[in-house]
Write a structure and sequence with these properties.
This protein has helices at 57-69, 86-92, 103-109, 111-118, 125-135, 161-165, 176-192, 271-287, 399-409, 419-426, 443-446, 476-483, 488-504, 526-531, 535-548, 553-589, and strands at residues 5-9, 28-32, 46-51, 73-79, 99-102, 140-144, 158-159, 197-200, 212-213, 229-230, 236-237, 249-252, 259-267, 292-297, 312-317, 319-320, 350-354, 358-360, 374-377, 388-395, 431-432, 439-440, 458-460. The strands form 5 sheets. The chain has an 8-stranded parallel β-sheet with strand order 5-4-3-2-1-6-8-9, sandwiched between helices. It is an alpha/beta fold. It folds into 3 domains: 5-220, Alpha-2,3-sialyltransferase (sialyltransferase cstii, chain A), CATH 3.90.1480; 225-504, Spore Coat Polysaccharide Biosynthesis Protein SpsA, Chain A (Alpha-Beta Complex); 526-589, Serine Threonine Protein Phosphatase 5, Tetratricopeptide repeat (Alpha Horseshoe). 32% of the residues lie in helices and 17% in strands. The chain is elongated, with a radius of gyration of 40 Å. Strand 22 (439-440), helix 11 (443-446) and strand 23 form a beta-alpha-beta unit. The chain binds alpha-D-glucopyranose and manganese (II) ion. Manganese (II) ion binds next to loops.
């Protein structure tokens, strides 16, 4: 066996950590640990050799399962354990691997390495594999094992799925002793194999290592990550051979004549926006056969079979949260930074990014001819500024650019708290596209002269969406355009979804019967008091009025009646008392 270029990579590496600009396409790939949990095929779906720490039964079972499922083509299993180890034996017998190679024997036959191994703690697994590759003639080794650099690894805005699943740090940090053993081991290997070049294959460019960064290579020779396909069954696997990617189409650039890998890309993180993505897909499919990649955060599960358009590909991506929301900006912009993942899809030469609230009315393929970053003017928040709207843009994905953007997320301001403010800062030298490539719906009312239906190529439903139920301004004439673009099955799905949304709304409670409004208590008038037989009080009520106005006939009469009434009352009372007295005397005398 003779190896030349070799990439040795540990598990759980973020795409942004891999220096793709330097990795040769034809290298032999050795993967360590649970690499199959990665978001993309970071280093392709073909694994020449894989190895795991044979301590965990769960890991071994998962690896066997992954190999069996066909999600990766694993050519060989490298075992570095004791040959009598039961688990090791089980793995070696896996029919899914085309071969199993005893790695430990080769290592123990090499005098310097054997001596090193006898001294106690073993170096990190990727370093053991590196040694094995060097023994087999490898002359260029690219090491992607950030855990040996001893820096804390953290990604404040990129959350790979595996960190969400387990709350543990995604790569174990090797302790100080182990790290010094790693360093000594590398230094020993460099002495033992002086002709071999060992490079750092990460984007970290560590200063404390005896080897340096790898030189950049031309893009057509470079390795690029492959998207992972989610099949209709929801299982990750490869649907088509790697050579013909379903994720892009080749297109000749009309300006430069170059053959370029092109795709439309959109982002969507909710059921509602998925309907937007369907309309987007149908509009594109009318004019173009280039695939539409629908990026979804990896914790939002979508099955790929729901689209009428045959060109749709679902691609899970890590979430990137806006650091500026929600303190002062729109909360719904919190996740729009996830759009930045389009810059990391460097298996593409060109991407046209389109928001999933856009309807495509004309062919926009010409946009692929543009080099660099381009977007259309924004008629939104800051009318006088020459901002662009980030709902439509053309870009050239590259891992360097992606990394540069991610590094700036935390400290570059965003005037709207979303990706648009950020991208306007990051691309001051953009090409401004003609306005009809991104016509904001509101322009119809605010700048009617710019709203020419015969020219609009992309209609952007900013603000209220056609699927949202609101009582805000009526846009039904534009919404109608959008509805017409759903396929027949998609329309039914939409109605069913709307029904389920409606059913989920809490049933409004009947309003509580309002207690009768208490009438302000008013003192009864003199007349009323008189009617009630309250002569004394009636007299009291009328007295102040008469004092003010002694000639008021009405009040004089009232006073007289009250007085008479009072007199009658007293008379009646006296009569009554007399009667009772007489009665009592009679009773006593009986
Ligand atoms: C605007 C843009 C949209 C962007 C958002 C957040 O609504 O139209 O594309 O995602 O701002 O910046
Ligand atoms: Mn939008």
């Amino acid at each position: 066996m003779q190896l030349n270029s070799v990439i040795v990579a540990s598990s759980n590496i973020a795409v942004s950590e891999i220096n793709f600009e330097a990795l040769p396409r034809d290298a032999t790939i050795i993967r360590c640990g649970n690499f199959y949990d990665e978001e993309l095929y970071s280093l392709g779906a073909e694994v020449d050799y894989c190895t795991i720490s044979e301590q965990s039964e769960a890991l071994i079972k998962r690896l066997a399962q992954v190999a069996y499922s066909g999600a990766y083509t694993i050519k060989n299993y490298l075992y570095a354990g004791d040959t009598n180890n039961k688990m090791s034996q089980m793995l070696r017998r896996q029919p899914a691997f085309k071969g199993a190679v005893d790695c430990l024997s080769a290592l123990s036959e090499h005098p310097q390495i054997a001596r090193f191994f006898m001294s106690g703690t073993k170096p990190a697994l990727p370093l053991q594999m590196l040694a094995w590759a060097l023994i087999h003639g490898c002359d260029r080794a690219y090491l992607i094992a950030p855990e040996i650099y001893g820096e804390a690894r953290h990604f404040p805005f990129v959350e790979p799925t595996y960190t969400q699943q387990s709350n543990q740090p995604h790569v174990e940090q090797r302790d100080q002793t182990a790290k010094s053993i790693d360093h000594a081991f590398i230094a020993m290997l460099m002495r033992a194999f002086p002709k071999a070049h060992i490079f750092d294959g990460t984007t970290r460019r560590p200063a404390n290592m005896p080897f340096g960064a790898a030189p950049q290579i031309p893009s057509h020779d470079r390795l690029a990550p492959m998207p992972k396909v989610i099949s209709a069954a929801g299982r990750r696997g490869i649907d088509e051979p790697q050579t013909k990617s379903p994720y892009y189409a080749h297109r000749l650039n009309a300006v430069t004549g170059k053959d370029e890998r092109c795709a439309y890309v959109t982002f969507c993180d909710s059921e509602a926006y998925l309907f937007g993505a369907r309309v987007l897909a149908n509009g594109l499919a009318k004019h173009s056969q280039i695939p539409l990649i629908v990026m979804t955060p990896s914790d939002f599960k979508v099955s790929g079979s729901k689209f009428q358009s045959p060109y749709v590909r679902i691609l899970p991506v890590p979430r990137i949260r806006s650091p500026h929301v929600p303190e002062k900006h729109q909360a719904r912009f919190e996740n729009t930074y996830t759009k930045l993942n389009v810059f990391g899809l460097d298996f593409l030469d060109k991407a046209i990014f389109l928001d999933s609230d856009i309807a495509i009315l004309r062919n926009i393929e010409d946009l692929f001819d543009i080099d660099g970053f381009a977007a259309a003017p924004d008629h939104g928040l800051r009318l006088m500024a020459d901002d662009f709207n980030s709902g439509v843009f053309v870009c050239q994905p590259s891992s360097n650019l992606y990394l540069k953007l991610l590094e700036n997320v935390s400290h570059v301001q965003s005037y709207d708290g979303g990706d648009q403010g950020f991208l306007n800062e990051m691309f001051p030298d953009r090409v401004l596209l003609p306005h009809h490539f991104n016509v904001l719906k509101r322009v119809e009312k605010s700048l009617p002269a710019l709203f020419d239906e015969d020219k609009i190529a992309a209609l952007h439903f900013v603000g209220e969406k056609p699927w949202s139920v609101t009582t805000a301004t009526d846009w039904s004439h534009l919404d109608r355009l959008w509805f017409e673009m759903l396929g027949p099955d998609e329309s039914i799905d939409f109605i069913l979804w709307l029904k389920s949304q409606y059913a989920r709304q809490p049933v409004p409670k009947p309003p509580k019967p309002q207690p009768p409004i208490p009438v302000a208590k008013r003192a009864p008038s003199a007349e009323e008091l008189l009617d009630m037989g309250k002569y004394q009080e009636a007299l009291k009520a009328v007295a102040p009025i008469l004092k003010e106005n002694p000639r008021s006939v009405r009040h004089l009469r009232l006073a007289r009646d009250a007085y008479l009434g009072k007199r009658q009352y007293i008379r009646a009372l006296k009569k009554h008392l007399r009667l009772r007295k007489v009665q009592r005397q009679r009773y006593q005398s009986n």
